Amino acid sequence: MKLVIAGVSGRMGRMLVAAASDDPSARIVAATEREGHDWIGRDLGAALGGAPRGIPVTDDLAAALRDADAVIDFTAPAATLTLSAAAAQAGAAHIVGTTGLSDDDIAVIDAAARRIPVVRAGNMSLGVNLLTALVRRVAATLGDDYDIEVVEAHHRRKVDAPSGTALMLGQAAADGRGVDLAGHSDRGRDGITGARAPGHIGFASVRGGDIVGEHDVIFAGPGEVLTLRHVATDRALFARGALRAAHWTAGRAPGHYAMTDVLGLT
Ligand SMILES: NC(=O)C1=CN([C@@H]2O[C@H](COP(=O)(O)OP(=O)(O)OC[C@H]3O[C@@H](n4cnc5c(N)ncnc54)[C@H](OP(=O)(O)O)[C@@H]3O)[C@@H](O)[C@H]2O)C=CC1
Ligand SMILES: O=C(O)C1=N[C@H](C(=O)O)C[C@H](O)C1
Question: Binding residues for NAD(+), per the UniProt record (predicted)?
């Protein structure tokens, strides 16, 4: 599989290079960075401080994607939208790990997914995707007298909150309860907030140090608290998931897929 790695100098970009380099059935054909980045025009191997690998780092998406089967994208919403159009134009699959996407952004990706396979997930790990099914089941089983809170913790450089994973878990809880998440969310409590709204799903975010990603879904009810927890200890986990998703798109019909489809959890 011929791959393009987007945002290659980032935390996940570097992980993706390592994961793809260890995969005998994957070959990185190009890497991208934003216009003006000091890696543009350099060889990827050299930019990473090693031997040249004959892989260009470019901001020319059409050129990067010309010969690619898939692009793996853990960047930022604006970059993901540009890549979405370029991937659809080139006929390459788009694997989207970027979080912080708005509903309008997702509508743009939906349009591209009519032409190419797109796999998008706020978390590409097996554990979190399994956890969504557990959360849905527990939320469906427990009544409204169990308050649901999603608490997430990440490193100090994360720019979006709540995390994409927290929103996936909140969505699973809302699905289990049969309610619309947007109309039943509490985000960012501060000051005299009043008592907790019954049936709402709360979100809280912790930022600090180098925490890779921790998520608790708390069901607090009369006389007991049930907590479902996932802890990521190495972000190589997400890169392996993304690579698996890229392979899964080979020969796949256009569509907007989730990681649960890739993992056979749907
Ligand atoms: N779904 C999942 O499993 C996971 C998702 N994520 C998500 O992935 C995203 C990236 O995370 P992380 O790697 O930690 O962030 P980083 O900031 O370390 O990396 C993002 C990279 O994208 C680059 N970038 C920004 N704009 C463009 C552009 N127009 N074209 C190409 N590259 C661009 C950035 O460059 P510059 O710094 O110069 O702006 C940077 O190199 C986040 O949204 C995060 O939440 C992270 C881990 C797992
Ligand atoms: O930015 C990160 O680091 C992570 N982002 C994803 C998210 O927003 O949930 C996935 C993971 O938790 C790491």
Answer: 7-12, 33, 97-99, 121-124
11 lines ligand 1 (CB under 6 A): yes
| pLDDT for res 266 | 82
Q: Strand locations in the chain, DSSP E?
A: 2-6, 27-32, 57-58, 70-73, 93-96, 117-120, 147-154, 185-187, 201-207, 213-221, 224-232, 255-257
Parts of the chain with a pLDDT under 70: none
Task: Tell me if 155 is assigned to a ligand binding site.
Answer: yes
Q: State the distance from the centre of ligand 1 to the C-alpha of 177, rounded, in angstroms.
A: 33
In the annotation, is 2 catalytic? Answer: no
Q: How far is the CA of 232 from the centre of ligand 2 (A)?
A: 9
- Please indicate, yes or no, whether residues 56 and 139 belong to a single structural domain of this protein: no
Ligand 1 atom closest to the Cα of residue 15 is 13
Assess whether 158 carries a catalytic annotation: yes
- Rounded Cα–Cα distance for residues 255 and 56 (Å): 29
Domain co-membership, 16 together with 109: yes
Ramachandran bin of 251, using left for φ above 0, alpha for ψ from -120 to 50, beta for the remaining angles: left
Distance 10 CA to ligand 1 centre (A): 6
Computed over every residue of the chain, the mean pLDDT equals: 97
Residues 12-22 have pLDDT tens digits of 999 999 999 99
Catalytic member of 94, 158, 215, 256: 158
Tell me, using a 6 A CB cutoff, whether residue 53 lines ligand 1. Answer: no
- Is 138 in the same domain as 220? yes
Q: What is the residue range of 11's domain?
A: 2-120+235-262
Q: Does residue 157 share a domain with residue 29?
A: no
pTM of the full structure: 0.97
CATH of the domain at 59: 3.40.50.720
Q: How many folded domains does the chain comprise?
A: 2
